[in-house]
Amino acid sequence: MASERLSERAWKQAIESTGLVLGVDDFAIKKGHTYNTGIHDLRGGTLLDILPGRKLEELRAYTRQYPGFLLLTPKAVVMDLARGYHTWISECFPNAIRIADRFHIHGYIIEAIQEVCKTVQGTLAPRAKAILKANHGLLHAQERALSAESKAKLDELLGYSDLLREVWTWKEEIINYHRCRWTNATAEGRHNRIKAFQRRHYFTRNRDHYKAGILVEYNRNRIPS
């Protein structure tokens, strides 16, 4: 089968790569209900596999079922902030740099700042509201450029929003983007094509046929014959 030949070549290319960068990203089969996880060779430009689900136990089950996944030796893995992904990748590839995808981070940061400056502000006591208004610029500043006093103020501001505090806990993964500048932009771009494929093959209930069709769709022009 064409899908099997393409898949074998894609995996061979990824396993032999000396600078492999993986992308791990989910996409919806049925929005809000059913999801798949795609594994992408970002440097090679191929889609390596599609996993059912995105929960940690589903990811671990995939590793048990397909131990060949552990033959990969990625330099880095790009993903969003889902803890299940980070736990799974740290278990499989402890030496790989885990990168929080900057497109997801940008959205989280904007959401967090809006949470503080609009929603939370309306619930604060007058003193806290005044502090936030006077120091909101600290939310955009680079931490290393802040004085000790400013860092203390920033810590106080972060205490006003669980969402901002959550983003701050991912600081290392955010910084890793600047150490290894890869994003999941390619993977995100494929999602619209996957959705189009799903619409065209709406009545394909056989998962093997569904998966094979997507792999052929995205790898046939990426793998040398």
Automatic annotation (TrEMBL):
It comes from the Bacteria. Residues 22-173 form the Transposase IS204/IS1001/IS1096/IS1165 DDE domain. PANTHER family: TRANSPOSASE FOR INSERTION SEQUENCE ELEMENT IS1557. This is Transposase. Pfam families: DDE_Tnp_ISL3. InterPro entries: Transpos_ISL3, Transposase_DDE. Coiled coil: none annotated.
